[in-house]
Amino acid sequence: MRNDVATIHNPVLPGFHPDPSILRVGDDYYLATSTFEWYPGVRLHHSKDLAHWRPVGGALTGQLDMTGNPDSGGVWAPGLSWADGTFYLVYTDVKAYAGGFWDTPNHVVTATSIDGPWSDPAPLHARGFDPSLFHDDDGRSWLLSNRTDWRPGRPWAGGIIIQEYDRAARRLVGEPIDLYAGTAAGMTEGPHLYRRDGWYYLITAEGGTEWFHQVTVARSRDLLGPYVTDPGTPLLTSAHRPDLTLQKAGHGSLVETPAGEWFLAHLTGRPLSPRGRCILGRETAIQRVTWTGDGWPRIDGGVPHEVVDGPDLPAHPWPGEPETDDFATTSLGPHWSTLRRPATADWLTAGGGSLRVRGGRSPGAQSGESLVARRIQHTGVTFEATVAFAPSTYQQMAGITAYYNSRNWYLLRIGWDEEHGPAVDVLSCERGRLGVHGPAVPVDGVARLRLELDGGVLRASYGDVEWGPFDASILSDEHAREDDAGVPRVWGFTGAFFGLWAQDHTGGGLTATFTAATCKPHP
């Protein structure tokens, strides 16, 4: 490693940050990642050296209606690009995927600054997902995506398609063209197109976003093909190296520095054990890319590395986030997300040292939930908050949660029962099966609650009382997936969260007040 530049330590975006789309504009680098059913949609980060990243926030706030979106539906695989002084962001809002059908409407929004405001979305096609825009040197722009196929007995991934996009009219023109069928690895998706030395390079994800994921490269002298697959493909995979820390390596996008250095941003996962469960979900890593004499990209060994020599740029770290959020301002910090609906004043208000959350629907409603959460980014971490809540019925509860999706979570809560009145205990849900874990500890309406994650073990505590240990590995992509005869009924694409959660099943909206929410990694 060189001592005069920043060193990249992977993953650069730990925790739930999948499907990275990387972009350079001038001296600034940006990453856009998938957010699925969480608001704000499309998480954005900014860097000056590719090693240190600061959260910019989410691009999509009021532009999304995710009412009823399934678990691991919503915003998939955004594509971030820039042309003529404008940022373009394309994304899929997945409405359904069960039973073999794919409802995948795609949209585009624009902004003159990465900080927004972003425009209202313009509709694109719904033929497939993972869209990206390529802006060619002749001023024309093209939309790429995969094509999905619902027909039984056929592969669901029907290859990569391309269609011209009219930037001025904000609409597609002409008809989609089949661009690339993919390789024997199958499940071809995640297309990104680049131009270098007279070649068009097509980067795709193949093999599925699990253990056999990979980055595939093909190229053509003509934009519309034919594309020839790199004989040295895959560019990157960890499929045959279960010993590596970084697994699931795939779904990549390229960036070139002003000095002509190339890097690949890609998703990865860190299982608790070899080919075990990934509580932190799919994360973002960056690898250095070199080029062969005959013009093919290469990554050292074709595998992901935890430590990478950064670009020839000075290190540019950013201030870290404080461990404790005291909710001093009226807006949530960029580390917070909300489930399926934006953080609006009808159910959530912050400021003056507290966060007030109006009790919402149950997780099974998949709309109207009142959950404010942050990504778990370490396998050893403690999350705690003070909760003020005064339930008068068992249908009201509030507390802190370790949450994966509507069917897999733990909730350390202030609830109510006939024997104790308001009391603290633990409610759990594993693949939709509820459990209540005692003892129930009477409380006067205010409690400092704590959740502690240690690898695959979760413990809950209030004062001197502890619940658990619980199996934290249910909060993983691998456990979340549920199939019907081999066809996924529930996908697992996100990652675990710690959160502040209020429920009122009476419809009365009883408010919980949260203060001093602390998330502290273990030494």
CATH topology of the largest domain: Tachylectin-2, Chain A
Coarse morphology:
globular
Number of strands: 41
Number of helices: 1
Q: Which strand order does the major sheet show?
A: 4-26-29-40-31-32-33-34
Q: Strand pairing plus helix content: what structural class?
A: mainly beta
Q: So, the CATH homologous superfamily of the largest domain?
A: Glycosyl hydrolase domain, family 43
What can be said about the biggest beta sheet? Answer: 8 strands, antiparallel
Q: Radius of gyration over alpha carbons? A: 23 Å
Q: What is the end-to-end distance?
A: 26 Å
Low-confidence stretches: none
User: Overall pLDDT, averaged?
Assistant: 96
What topology emerges from the helices and strands here?
Blueprint: E1 7-9, E2 21-25, E3 28-33, E4 38-39, E5 41-47, E6 54-60, E7 74-83, E8 86-94, E9 106-111, E10 122-123, E11 132-135, E12 141-148, E13 157-166, E14 171-180, E15 189-196, E16 199-206, E17 214-220, E18 228-229, E19 236-237, E20 247-256, E21 262-269, E22 282-291, E23 297-298, E24 307-309, E25 324-325, E26 337-339, E27 348-351, E28 354-358, E29 370-375, E30 380-388, E31 396-405, E32 408-417, E33 421-430, E34 433-442, E35 446-454, E36 457-462, E37 465-471, H1 477-480, E38 482-484, E39 487-490, E40 497-504, E41 511-521
Antiparallel strand pairs: 1-24, 2-3, 3-5, 4-26, 5-6, 7-8, 8-9, 9-10, 11-12, 12-13, 13-14, 15-16, 16-17, 17-18, 17-19, 20-21, 21-22, 22-23, 25-41, 26-29, 27-28, 28-41, 29-40, 30-35, 30-41, 31-32, 31-40, 32-33, 33-34, 35-36, 36-37, 38-39
